[in-house]
Amino acid sequence: MPVVDVDTDELRQLTGHDEKSDEELKEDLFALGLEYEGETEDGLLQFEFGPDRLDRLSVEGVARSLRYQYGDDRGVYVPQLNSPDWTIDVEESVPEQRPYVTGAVVRGVNMDEETLDSLIQLQEKLHATMGRKRVKGAIGIHDLVMLKGEDLGEGGGNSITYRGVDPDGERFVPLDSDAELTPGEVLEQHPTGEKYADVVADYERYPAIYDELGLFSFPPVINGRRTEVDEDSTDLFVELTGTDQWTIDKMCNIICYALSARGGTVEEVEVETPEGTLVRPDFDVDTKEVGHDRIETLLGAELEFEEVVDLFERSGLDATTNLGDEMSYDVEIPPYRVDVLHPVDLVDDVGRAYGFNTLEPRYPDVGTVGGRHDRSDLERAVRERLVGLGFEDMLNFHMTDEAMNYDGMSVAPESESDADTVLGATPPVRIVEPYSEDYTMLRTWALPSLMTVLENNTHRAYPQDLSEVGFVAHEDTEENTGVAESHRVAGVLARYDATYEDAKAKLQALCGDFGVELETPATEHPSFIDGRTAAVVVDGENVGVVGEILPEVLVGHDLELPVVAFEFELSALE
Amino acid sequence: MRLPESQVAVLEAASTDEQTVGELADETGLKPETVTRAAFDLRDDGLVAIEERTETTTTLTEEGEQYIEAGLPEVRLYRAAVDAGGDADAVPMGQVIGASELAGPEVDIALSNFARKGYGRIDSGELVVDADADPDADDEAAALAALADGEAVDDEQVLEELDRRGLVNRTESTVRSISLTDDGVTAMMEGVEVAETVDRLTPELLTSGEWRDVEFTEYNVEADAPEERGGKVHVLRQTAERVKDTLVGMGFQEMEGPHADSEFWINDCLFMPQDHPARTHWDQFALDVPPMEEIPEDLLDRVESAHREGVGDDGDGYHSPWTENVAREIDLRGHTTSLSMRYLSGFAEGELEPPQRYFSVEKVYRNDTLDATHLLEFFQIEGWVMAEDLSVRDLMGTFEEFYRQFGITDIQFKPHYNPYTEPSFELFGRHPTTGELIEIGNSGMFRPEVLEPLGVDCDVMAWGLALERLAMLVTGAEDIRDLHGTLADLDFLRNAEVIR
After folding, report:
1. Is B441 part of any domain?
2. Which CATH class is domain A81-280?
């Protein structure tokens, strides 16, 4: 979840509420859904929130939300936009993976250390969230004074160019460096370049933004040092590139609103693409219609029209009522909101402003009949019977590795084509790019888990009679999911005097209790001693194995006493 | 007649004359308490009679012992006064006391008893001795000496005086005297044999009737017995059963479905954009199996449309890439909401008409860091209610009722964000023992972008919670790895308290 770092002095100043203590601010922010998480090394307070209101990723955005909450502001606010002086020319050469660009000019920003820190934070947090680690959208902010645009003639203003360049086709001095590097060299030699090299890994041409003096930005990786913004910068050029126009436009709006709160005046920029001209930023107000009835049913409360309009306005929205058969509201949504996909999101805003916690809970007055599914009932009955037979019920992970599932049991995995496979030797369902080498596949049988529990408990008192009713899986392309899933009953008896008979005795008792017929014809299994191993045949169907575990398997599990074991399909007891 | 050994001994030692327990103990060589118990058993059989009387025993206190050697203080004062010539004339008290070598509290004791016993008078600081008095015949001194020699003293007045002076302790005790009854005499004449004592009651004793004649050796019933374990249902399963029972009782039907499922059912139906951070390999486990072939085509189209265009007249979609290839890839489910999607769509059990309540308590898989509170696989409690016109108040009422069953009260609903629900709430509750406010679940009303493609045209509220979190609250377990998986400590499981 996103975290925003807030300087509370800044917050008091931006909200105009000097009287609020840090504790009061924390409470007010909790009510907005921002939860206090701790402090940074620099003494900023950190707040975590759900990744919907990304317009709150800066102190300016948090202050705006608070002013609405306090009732200081109401309704939709859209900053004045000045007409464009700058143009971004988009050339045909831009990388096909990153065709979109947008931008804005902001003049007269009251820049100081705090504003600059806040701007950098907002940029980074937007990169991490909406920007999907700069893949979907990346922001570059430049000191306008340091840009020399191409003069477009009388009344035409200045232009810069977005184009694609060869990896080593151009040199520039990137931020935090003194050396002139090509974009290709930046990716190899500059720490920021190394970090974001993956984003452009499959680009043939690299994105680059030029002015009259040359390349000044290498999105989405790094800006040039020439146009670096510092505490003396007042006029800024904001550019964003990405894989989706809507996303970078919204990111741009959030940046512009934050700079506007710092005294900046936003000026439009024209984006000349081969398809046509865009005028940005796009501060158009979106409108959605919300039914009064839907608000009332979802909140379970009766509300007056005026009250609803008031709640909308206190959420930074504007609403006009539509009188008719079905009462509704046309709700205007400001351009910095990125989370309103459906009228229900506006109902949520009303609920938050109303205070969800003030609603009285009620138990829904609908009658339904409860029940468990058949396997759930069967599992419980088998588990309880096993416990009655003296087994300790175990619960093991479904993920394992090949060493534990096959090698440790002297079993070799078979390919899927083998029909009648040895229990446990079925082909594995492997995890793609496993995070841990201990969890690389799903277990094909349950006995390896029980043997591992025995191995991990050799310091505990014997006898250790363990059982598990649990999930196993193997690859099966016949299945829609490619995975055959089943549930097994498994048991081990680790006793100084354990013999085959002990295991069979338990098995007999269990099968008798469930009214099924057990036969145990001799068989062979690589985990068990020959001559002391039988197939578990229930009602004529081969469903598992029972026997004495092979000494080499015991020794491999650090066990110094005999273990007898069984495993078979749970469904056999149905 | 066969009787236990001790009873036979007492019976043989007893006569028609009364004998005390002490006397019989001396005679039989048994402990007095054994004789007493045997006597009571014999009396119950009518073979002996027991007379009880109260006896007072008198013993010397430490002070009394001292006076045996040194003499009573008043006697010593009298002798010193006589030596100083006090039998003829009054003598100064200080001089006599000095000569008597009385010290401290003895002086006061001597002076008060001197006067009481008429050994003389005390007048203006001088002692006048009564020459006729005879301290050698002092009753109290004689009684002390007799008690010291173990002789009985009958003079009750003297004994009371000594008790008052704190020179003796008097205690009352019950003395039992035992004598043979007529039946006892008859039994003796007919002959009494010793019955054998046995350690264990055996089938042979019972079937032969010998149990009537045997005496059972006594056990130390307070000693620790060997450890008894038996089996136990895993504590997490017990918690799961509690949850299932509770939900079934609240009218919920249980769902089941695949652990390995397509991203379509796990994420796309839930309106999770395909470039959502939680949909990377770092958060979920992708499986190396072929993509899912069978997904209902019309449902697939409606879900894609919801992602791209949104639903309803004023709906917007995501500005994220969406491909069918991603939807068909197979993962281990990161939540059991995939089951809810299968049921709500009608794919699992056919079309559902409201009202419905469904739940599952099943395993989910997340690529998280393993630590004391996080596992790569854990159980998720998932539940939903489908009905016309549900409100957040119904959601709150349902969850308050559920958590109340586990002693968790004071439920708070913190507005929250999920891609698949709106409104959404994180649930907080009061810990039953520590009183802390802790996060206990995530809930909300499914979005129209989730429900419309599934063909559901009423409201559905849903919630999810990790079973392990509930189990840790209920059992007080501090490290989840003790509970779940092959690292499980058998002793922890064997000693875990039963969930009730």
Report:
1. yes
2. alpha beta
Query: Which chain A residue has its CA at the smallest distance from B486's CA?
Result: A453
Percent composition of chain A: helix, strand, coil (DSSP 3-state, to 5): 30, 30, 40
Q: Which of A49, A289, A431 sits opposite B285 (nearest CB)?
A: A431
Task: Tell me which fold the domain A3-70 belongs to.
Answer: Phenylalanyl-tRNA Synthetase; Chain B, domain 1 (3.30.56)
Which of these, A293, A274, A242, lies nearest to A95 by C-alpha position? Answer: A242
Asked if B275 has any chain A CB less than 8 Å from its own CB, the reply is yes
| Nearest Cα to Cα of residue B349 among B256, B480, B483 | B256
B87 and B181 share one domain: no
CB A167 within 8 A of CB A183: yes
- Short-list A61, A547, A69, CA closest to A352: A69
Q: Say yes or no: B290 contacts chain A, CB-CB below 8 A.
A: yes
Q: Report CA A488 to chain centroid distance, whole Å.
A: 34
Per-residue DSSP letter, A95? -
Q: With CB atoms and an 8 Å threshold, state whether B253 touches A442.
A: no
B267 and B211 both lie in a single domain: no
Determine whether the interchain pair B397/A363 forms a contact, defined as Cβ–Cβ distance below 8 Å: yes
Say whether A482 and B412 touch across the interface (CB within 8 A). Answer: no
- As for the ipTM of the complex, it is 0.92
Position A443 scores a pLDDT of: 97
Distance (Å) from the alpha carbon of A483 to chain B's nearest alpha carbon: 7
β-bridge mates for residue A174, sequence order: A224
Task: Give the list of residues 6+ apart from residue B175 with CB closer than 8 angstroms, or none.
Answer: B20, B21, B52, B53, B54, B55
Domain holding B11: CATH number? 1.10.10.10
Per the CB < 8 Å rule, is A342 touching B330? Answer: no
Instruction: Give the per-residue pLDDT at A417.
Output: 54
User: Can you spell out the DSSP letters for A184-227?
Assistant: HHHHHHSHHHHHHGGGGTT-SSEEEEEETTEEEEETTTEEBSTT
Both B378 and B457 in one domain: the answer is yes
* pLDDT computed for residue A416 by the predictor: 65
Are A373 and B255 within 8 A, CB to CB? yes
Nearest CA of chain B to the CA of A351: how many Å?
Answer: 8
CATH class name, domain A374-573: alpha beta
- pLDDT lower than 70: segments of chain A: 416-420
Q: Which of A368, A396, A461 sits opposite B356 (nearest CB)?
A: A368
Same structural domain, B83 and B197:
no
Structural domain boundaries of chain A? Answer: 3-70, 81-280, 286-358, 374-573
Minimal CA–CA distance to A58: which of A21, A6, A12?
A6
Please give the sequence-ordered ranges of beta strands (E in DSSP) within B119-235, or none if there are none: 120-123, 126-129, 168-180, 193-194, 197-198, 215-216
CA–CA distance, B164 with B185 (Å, rounded to integer): 48
Answer for the pair B250, B401: CB distance below 8 angstroms, yes or no.
yes
Residues B93-124: tens digit of each pLDDT: 777 788 777 877 888 888 888 878 888 877 77
By residue range, what is the domain housing residue B39?
Answer: 2-58+172-216
Give me A221's structure tokens. Answer: 């990786």
Cβ–Cβ contact B258 with A under 8 A = yes
- A474 CA: distance to closest CA in chain B (Å): 10
Of B230, B251, B415, the CB nearest to A368: B251
Residues of chain B with pLDDT under 70: 281-282
Give chain B's domain count.
3
CA distance B353 to A59: 48
Rounded to the nearest angstrom, the minimum Cα separation between A427 and chain B is 11
Q: Which residue on chain B is closest to A372 by alpha carbon? A: B254
The 10s digit of each residue's pLDDT in A344-401 is: 999 999 999 999 989 999 999 899 999 999 999 999 999 999 999 999 999 999 999 9
Correct CATH for A286-358 of 3.40.50.300, 3.90.1150.10, 3.30.56.10, 2.40.50.140: 3.30.56.10
